[in-house]
Amino acid sequence: MHRAAYLFLTSTMLLWGGNSVAGKLAVGHVSPMTLVFLRWVMAVLILLPVGWRALREDWPEVRGHWRLIAGLGACGFTIFNVIFYTALNYTTAINVSIEQAAMPIVIILANFLLFRLRVQPLQIVGVVLTIVGVALTASHGELGQLLKLNLNFGDAIMLVAVLCYSLYSVGLRLKPAIRWQSLMLALSIAALLISVPFFLWEAASGRVIVPDARGWALTLYTALGASVVSQVLYIKGNELIGANRAGLFINLVPIFGTLLSVLIVGEQFQPYQALALALVLGGIALAEYSGSKAALQMQ
Q: Where in or outside the cell (predicted)?
């Protein structure tokens, strides 16, 4: 069971790391809110043949939990990405990477406050190691540079995005007992509806960039890889080992994003990137050892 969860979550973070690279490549080829809107249009179209029948059969449960599903779709699928793209207009990629590293901590705190779920000391050590790895990646191997960071409006709203996705991760434990096809289609429809006002705002302000060939290709990747496949795997991983342990894998995103930039964009691989990867993987392994041991003792 744990091996499947590790595979699901690692694959998710690899796809999300690819989404970071896609975001870089999309600049000038499709505007941010248009990208968010179109990715969910495509995601719904992809999921309709797969999930429509299941959604019809599960409709009584979906209707009974529509507020929860709408909230999860809004927080985890739309608002996080809208704020993420907006924050990068005001702050640096370094700041955003560091702030995203707070997600595991927020998830742990939220689980404790809402459900009284406790963590083991070694899990805290593992979280700290992964944050150091993210900091090393974000600062390009010079941790002293982090002391020079200036906080601004972009950083403030990025913290809201971190809170949104953390609450989404924790809220998955409350999802109704329906098939994943129904859940993903319902969440994606909610995400699409929530994205419409942001797209209309971008259009009204004259900031829309209609996708060109590269823009459409990147939008398809974000829809299929970063939206549909990755979210299914993330939900499955959460089901298997819980949000506290699954959330720790999120700190692999900037690591994979950096490594994929080396492979795809042609950036140069640096020794600090290898050290950062080792720290993040080591932190996850340490936290997982402690978390899985504690879970066995509770059975």
A: Cell membrane
